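Why this split exists: single-chain examples teach little about how molecules sit against one another. For that reason, every record in the complexes split bundles all components of an assembly together and asks for one structure covering all of them. Below is a record exactly as it appears in the raw files.
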Amino acid sequence: MNQKEPLSKRMKLSWREMPFAGIMFEPGSSVEYKTGDWRIERKPQIDGEKCIRCFICWIFCPDVSIKRVPKPYKKHIESVEVDYYHCKGCGICAAECPVNAIEMIEESTDVP
Amino acid sequence: MVVLKNLSTEELYAPGHRLCAGCGPSISIRMALKAARGPIAVVNATGCVEVSTTIFPYTAWRIPWVHALFENQAAVASGLEAAYQSLEEKGKRKGKVDIIAVGGDGGTFDIGIQAISGMLERGHDIVYLCYDNEAYMNTGIQRSGATPRGAATTTSPAGKVIPGKRGKKKDFIGICAAHGISYAATASIGFFSDYIDKMKKAIEVDGPAVVHVIAPCPLGWRSNPTETVKLAKMAVLTGLFPIYEVNDGIYKMSMKLGRLLPIEEYFKLQGRFQHLMKPEWKNEVEEIKKDTEKHYKKILRLAGEKIT
């Protein structure tokens, strides 16, 4: 398996190899930095039955952690999913949901 | 009117940045990039967004991005626009690149205003986006020209002598509109449809445009991260931050409020205004109320609305 080394390893360069003026060559490389472990006590859980697919949680997420996926469910053609690797657990999605389909649940050890 | 279902799912702003949980500026940047119509480049002044999104060797941007100092983001953006124009004239590249200059309220209201004034006067085709979290949050909550009256910050602490910051918030859009630019607007991250529409208009305008957006900061406002969006909405509904646009000098209200929400409700949710809830500063709240109404009526008068 050709697994890519993490960016922090790849960028461990000597001062001669360091890019000029700290230029970064990989757009959006922060995806590799998992901010999910910032969450301390709660995380959002979306109830697919209650959700009306208004995407208000998606537009208000500061961490781009609510994703629109082309997953058909009943009459809906799209669904929303939470990216727990990057969600910081601020709870804006749960507060702004018009139908209260998002609940902040306790963090547990068995789910990533 | 923006329909969320029709917005692009392409994220130009990646997750994994180190902004706080419930960060308002982060929401404002993400929404602004949703308004992109084609290739886009960003010039970012020093501030929360710059510091937290590009910690070496990581970057949260999927578009060309330049870091400029606190004071010269508008000047760097002007140079970038001129460079693209020159390349196009020489036939080395084709197509238009929209340039957005992003700055926090410190870099805009206090430090960068000279370069911004120059940019607006020279008439570069740039969108200037100011995310306003009402203090220098990145360096530890110091007061800025955008801090509202009565807010406690580390350099204007509330005590026995003064109730937080003295003096009003600068009327930044008024200053920009006085340059005679074709588009200037204020917006709130709470009303995403209005904000994205304004960003779209600002990008389409030929010439400089300014958008001033309020973005609550849970750390500096000492509020609950959950309430970021609620506070952004309440700032508009209490009349403290009226949203309007200026098209070639003509003011237009984006949201007409019948009655303003009581300011106390907005203050209650924030730690930086807690001292105003004490009986000894009751006069200060009354003064803030008067000031707010005066400012709101001034905007209404400029927009040619009926004053009730």
